[in-house]
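Look over both lines before class:
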Amino acid sequence: MRFERAKNYDEFATAQKKAAADLSELLTKQIHAADKIYEIGCGSGIFTQHILKEISFKELTLNDLYKSLPMEKYPSQIGDICTLEIPKNLNLIVSSSVLQWIDDLNSLFQKIDDSLFEKGMFAFAMFTNGTLFELERFTHQGLAYKTPDEICSLLKNHFEILDSKENFCTLQFENLFALLDSLKQTGVNNLDGNFHLTKSNFKELEKSFDGKFNLTYRYLVVVCKKFN
């Protein structure tokens, strides 16, 4: 995902905003304050805005692969969360619409566990299997999205799950051009280098939608707590 190229991300990030709202709803059922908060993959700040409005804190550190506008106002760590050294003794670690890009979730969960203070919390929303299935059924390519059960099974090695929710968002477009533009504007690329869109397969892809140009995003929201 190349967010630095997705200049109109917020305008097109409907599914990501819905996932962030669901994450905020579940999280604020559990807490309304945390001294030290760390956000993984803050991007344009869609979930950061929920933090600022709904959770009191003393310190907020933002992470992303590239510097973004929210990171100019708060302490930040630029780089891959899998290789960065996350600060210790955090009270809350959050992430929205990012963790589906992580190959080794178990290692990251362990890293997050190690960075949390006693009884610290971890809350996230991530896209799961079935996301963009309308495109994948034609290209036979896509991210190796995990199932909610697979994710929760890994989590239980490190955390107590306090609450969880599965949900989806289906976007409707007038035509294939608009659908593909939405993917481009949000920096989402469900294709690898072996698939190239040509005039010929564009028509085939268009036909595969059978007049209904929809994209479905499925996601899991979890709020959990470090084991005592």
Remarks:
- The chain has a mean pLDDT of 91.
- Residues 39 and 94 are 5 Å apart (CA to CA).
